[in-house]
């Protein structure tokens, strides 16, 4: 299972029951929270997402609609008796803000927070199963996008073939990694004779808030699902540029250039009650576009 | 019109669709916001309360469930183009927290915030029509209650009587204030011969979070409506004391001792899904008790 659940799809001002930005990425048994606008803890409850399963929270930037819900979520995790580590990734002033708010409340959290300050592009989490990297986007204040990548899946062994070639079971792990096998007679058994490729690893890029920036297409090249903000419809391109946001057509253009499989759009301005035009305009440029709808989960 | 609308009635951990503390007091054309837990701005929208009408916000203390929604509300007021002054009353570190959050977002609010640090008991707002006073409560960290009082209403002139006694119209304002009138012949026309009392001024006391503290009955003596927290049912009195909270019976006891007209109870622990027992237990001690229900308005 690799998917993203939308908890908030609106821009700064909550409107029409739409909430500020927050997304939960599920990758097998891991939950990652990306951004945490006001009300995220209530949205987690509404959509029955277990907050105790969240071990990594990524905050793109310090505009309130992307992090005002964080202190409440953290405080609640404490009240619920969480004891295991929580990893937080965000711009460094976030740490001071949280500390100040915990201090004035005389709150001693029962779990450790490990804070990772975002300061340069690159990998910020690396395990045997996945990696997360960050990259800067072009916004009014320092802002970061994130790419979550599954690790390469092991190749699948074809049972009848390994028996046929007499390869011992002790060598299977090496085969899964792609190695050839040399038998007692010095003959090379090519890996591709006895294994088949597993499904390719998938990836999710979250481009946060950003103005149109072609370098994002490079950074997110070939990801499975690209989330790109579309604060405005295409007729407000000038306003989008001035405010360091993007339009439908700009987001879809990045998706085309990045050659991604699917595009997810969100961060809709409160100007708009209906979202149909967002979908129509983006799909004209990049057909496999989807609206980020709150409560919906999109497979990655 | 003098009334209080409940936006949040739950204690720290949001549960069962109940929100953290926030109340809007309407006094004629004035709206006062008391406390501002996470999600208050969404609750204001839900219950169609115009945030532009709020000119005074009172924050009782710096536990998150009483103020985490403030920065979001303020930011949204700015995005909506508010220009008129907003008066904020709260413990002094609140000012630093807000400043830090506005600074990192590079936000310049289009309206001035006038911050009033709470440090001693007494009147904090005084106009010709109402006053607001604060008083300390006993909680884990510094915490303040508030009393909003209408000013004494002018006496009502009885038209036929003032004509009968020949009192000139220019003197009516003095009559409303309670003065007697002396006519040309040196005769004293007693005020009570020509006016009748208006309805008595009403008052609302908000006791914030507090453990059982009999001095609160003195401080809130005779108010029209008393809001007192009831985090727990009566069987958990020990837990209430330890955590600086109150039970149903304790709140109702304060209402009896303070000789108030009505009691409003709230700040229910997330332990409890149903609230019926809160009402039953408090009414046994103080019959005119009401549950603070979100979205409901209680006349003061």
Précis, in short:
The structure is a homodimer of 300-residue chains. With 300 residues, the first copy, chain A, is of the alpha/beta class.
List the helices and strands and how they pair.
The structure is a homodimer of 300-residue chains.
Chain A: E1 2-8, E2 22-27, E3 30-36, H1 40-46, E4 54-58, H2 70-79, E5 86-90, H3 93-104, E6 113-117, E7 122-126, E8 130-137, E9 143-150, E10 156-157, H4 159-164, H5 172-177, E11 181-182, E12 188-189, H6 191-194, E13 195-196, E14 203-206, H7 215-219, E15 225-229, H8 237-242, H9 248-258, E16 262-266, H10 276-285, E17 289-291, E18 297-299
Helix pairs in contact in A: 9-10
Regions with little confidence, pLDDT below 50 for 5+ residues of chain A? none
Q: Give the CA-based shape of chain A.
A: globular
Question: What fraction of the residues of chain A are assigned to beta strands by DSSP?
Answer: 25-35%
Main beta sheet of chain A:
7 strands, mixed
- The number of distinct helices of chain A, counting runs of at least 4 residues, comes to 10
Helix content of chain A: 25-40%
Multimer state: homodimer
Please identify the structural class of chain A as seen in this structure: alpha/beta
The fold-level CATH name of the largest domain in chain A is Metallo-beta-lactamase, Chain A
Instruction: Output mean pLDDT of chain A.
Output: 96
CATH class of the largest domain in chain A: Alpha Beta
Shape-level CATH architecture of the largest domain in chain A: 4-Layer Sandwich
Largest interface: A-B, 33 and 33 residues
The number of strands of chain A is 18
Rg of chain A, Cα atoms, Å: 22 Å
